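Tutorial, part two.
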Amino acid sequence: MLPPKPLRCGTYPLKGLVFDEDELLGCIDDYLCDNNLPLLYDLNKIGGPYVSIEQGKFQGRINKRLKKYLTEKRVEIPPKFSSEVGEIVSKLTNKSIVMKITKNLEWEQGEYGDDGSCFWEGRSVCRTEIFPAWDVHACLIESNDGQGMARCWIYPIHAGDELRPITEAIKVKRDLLYIAFNPYGYEVDRFTRILSYQFNWVGHLLSQFEGDGAMYVNSGESVLFNGPEINRVFTSMGGEASRCENCDTYSTELNDGGLCDDCYHPATCFGCGDQFHEKNMYGVGLEQFCHDCFYEWKVCDDCGELVKMKGRSCPSCVRVR
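Running the prediction step on this input gives:
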């Protein structure tokens, strides 16, 4: 088996991968049935939906691997078997789809099948601030003419993350551990196949990938690549953000009263000159005061002036008396 490759930004043509595994299996089994050969039922018996495998138990092209499988069944192989199966595979092999790995996380919501994603709505701070800080990449699937089709996030495991249970089974470098999560447009198993094909990764589905704060992971849609057979991974990514008390939007910096910038409407305190949310201000006469200054400033009973004072009369009126 080839060693895993590190994640690199770039554009990758996916010419060697059959995308519709079910269709491929159906066409192969139809061909086997028509030629009175044992049905395959499962592509994993010949190494999966990859057009060609360079090393390992199932190396070779699909038609070669299928022929070897049938030979072991001791059945007679038709004379044109290799060319006919090769033609089936060729018709179903992707020739017009590319994968892009990028750190540019700015595109229109829905452009990659991700309409309704919370990372464009209440948790947009993840995409705009937290993901760049944690080196999160986007895996984008496009047609050759640039039409968006699908996407998922790829997160490189960091030293502070908790792999549960902590194990000595991690034999690869930590910078080759990745988690793909929150796929849109394609199912998680298809992204697993694509990334495994391109980078020689080995992935398994996580039962739980969770994070602090604004981080949200769709349940059952995360894959750990090149790591041990564990079920849970925790990341503190997202812990920098807190939820706005008014609209529930997450932000890395909340204003007075735990409010985001959209909900925060500042007013200047007449007493100290600081700004506070208008709902947290108190009126004295025609002026607005913060909580602390409100108890220090009063309207003088004698002269009617607004003054910082104790009691009911300002110092000037007390002296006149």
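Residues 166-172 have pLDDT under 50 and may be disordered. In part three we will examine how such features are distributed along the chain.
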